[in-house]
Write a structure and sequence with these properties.
By secondary structure, the protein is an all-alpha fold. The chain has 11 helices and no strands. It has one domain. α5 packs antiparallel against α9.
């Protein structure tokens, strides 16, 4: 259970942990940010890594001058695009049999089924929409690889979605992360970002429950 408490601590005090990373690793912090974003988007076993909140925090520190805004946006856009590309390739390689994988600590096939349903409703634009929905963000390119979406079509959605996601989250942190009301309540702001991020998924869940009840 300690790893869960550690993860919660990172979410609630992301400003402190990122500040510590910048102080300890300096320029290598960019590599750390790149790795986290790549894993969060590229590996189906790590959907719980910080995404939106990490980008917002990085933008806030760029606003302070601790990180370079252009470098943050460029590197993390590449990380997001490469992550989805790897995820798509793994999905294409493994194929539909992954739906029958047993549930484990690191892989929940139910997340995959929910993503498939989300994909069936929204089509190709799921790759863009999913960027702003935790969990779905990690599984959407994987499902696209399993399905019949051609890679060039997927790549177009991937680039648009990756750049848009990084730009929205990082620039939000850059312009609003250092406002007094946000800076003095940074942990609450991070929680708000996480709640806003999961709200589309919650809305879809409630809508599904309501429709199921009518049947």
């Amino acid at each position: 259970m300690e790893w869960i408490y550690g993860l919660v601590d990172i979410f609630l005090h992301l400003d402190r942990h990122l500040a510590e990373a910048i102080a300890a690793y300096g320029v290598y912090t960019y590599a750390l940010l790149f790795l986290i974003v790549f894993c969060e988007t590229g590996l189906v076993v790590t959907p719980i890594l910080p995404g939106d909140s990490l980008l917002f925090a990085a933008g806030a520190f760029a606003g302070l001058g601790s990180l370079h805004l252009g470098l943050v946006m460029g590197l993390l856009s590449v990380a997001a695009i490469l992550g989805d590309t790897v995820n798509y390739a793994v999905g294409a390689y493994l194929g539909p049999k992954v739906f029958h994988f047993p549930k484990s600590r690191f892989f929940n096939p139910e997340h995959l089924r929910k993503t498939q349903a989300f994909y069936d409703r929204h089509g190709g634009k799921t790759i863009i929409i999913a960027r702003f929905v935790p969990i779905i963000r990690t599984f959407a390119p994987f499902v696209a690889g399993i399905g019949t979406m051609r890679y060039l079509r997927f790549l177009a959605y991937n680039v648009i979605g990756g750049v848009a996601w990084v730009a929205v989250c990082v620039l939000s942190g850059y312009f609003f992360g250092n406002l007094a009301v946000v800076k003095n309540n940074f942990s609450l702001a991070i929680i708000a970002i996480v709640l806003i991020s999961v709200s589309p998924a919650l809305f879809e869940y409630l809508r599904h429950r309501r429709n199921s009840a009518r049947i």
